[in-house]
């Protein structure tokens, strides 16, 4: 019952974003010509691909305007849908859910993914009795946000290991700030911790934990999240949209082909120069963007697992959304 209530709450949040988006006045652009300024939310201590693209000079006269930080992909794309920012990024399942609810947005480029170097693991204490999916019944799984990547991967793991919907509802996804997740696991406030990047590497270096599974174990290499922009923005600012998407595409390929040490050095300098009083230490552990497709181009395959997941849980109807509703590569001019 808790799982059902949680999902209904997330659906209502998405619908609220849609209502606000539909009632909002015109976004950027208008009679004065295309906007050359893009409002966005950042992530503390991290450098997003748009921030990297701007620093590399890939946006030309298009400038980013930071309006604050977020810790949630679903919140970020809801803010984009309501016009509070001009683009936002989230896990593709959250994108599907928002668009299925009627939000007038479209995904334009992939920005993060999973590969052999960049992945999220589901970890337990070394002496934990948890060895299988069925051992998770009644257990708390700590993650950064609900209704996003970590919860979807958890559900797919449980489904593939034969748990029924009623049994899956007995597993308890629990929101824990990423920086506190390892501590919560070690203090036994949760039984499983979802850890990625520097937080995973530091936790493993400290010892005493072991992996149960990872999203890479489960699904292999894939692009997992996309940036979305409102349909209105794309219509009113097509040149700016193309500059943005192509610039991000170039940044993806720059990061893919540049030695990690150079990417880390440049990212660290970006954080220092922007003066937000942040700790840049985590950047030293950067390994890859994880984006699977060249230049972040989007394919149907990147949405299908999450669409199926949402249908299986009754969040959307089968056939409710089509590929054309979800994304476009029209504005990605990389290599063209």
Question: Largest beta sheet: what is the strand line-up?
Answer: 7-6-8-5-9
- Rounded to an integer, what's the Rg over CA atoms? 20 Å
Indicate the percent of residues in helices. 40-55%
Could you report the average pLDDT, rounded to the nearest whole number?
89
Strand content: 15-25%
- The N- to C-terminal Cα distance equals 51 Å
Inertia-based shape = globular
Order of helices and strands: HEHEHEHEEEHHEHEHEHEHHHHH
Number of helices: 14
Which sheet architecture does the biggest sheet show? 5 strands, mixed
Query: What ranges have pLDDT less than 50 throughout 5 or more consecutive residues?
Result: 1-32
Given the helix and strand composition, which structural class is it?
alpha/beta
Number of strands: 10
Would you write up a description of this structure?
By secondary structure, the protein is of the alpha/beta class. The chain contains 14 helices and ten strands. The chain has helices spanning 2-23, 49-55, 73-81, 92-100, 149-160, 165-168, 178-186, 197-206, 215-219, 231-236, 238-257, 260-274, 304-312, 323-326, and strands at 37-42, 63-69, 88-91, 105-114, 120-125, 140-143, 172-175, 192-196, 209-214, 222-230. The strands form three sheets. Strands 7-6-8-5-9 form a five-stranded mixed beta sheet, with helices on both faces. α2 links the parallel β1 and β2 (63-69). The longest helix is centred in the N-terminal third of the chain and has 22 residues, at 2-23. The chain is globular and about 60 Å long.
Secondary structure: elements and pairs:
Blueprint: H1 2-23, E1 37-42, H2 49-55, E2 63-69, H3 73-81, E3 88-91, H4 92-100, E4 105-114, E5 120-125, E6 140-143, H5 149-160, H6 165-168, E7 172-175, H7 178-186, E8 192-196, H8 197-206, E9 209-214, H9 215-219, E10 222-230, H10 231-236, H11 238-257, H12 260-274, H13 304-312, H14 323-326
Parallel strand pairs: 1-2, 6-7, 6-8
Antiparallel strand pairs: 3-10, 4-10, 5-8, 5-9
Helix pairs in contact: 2-11, 4-13
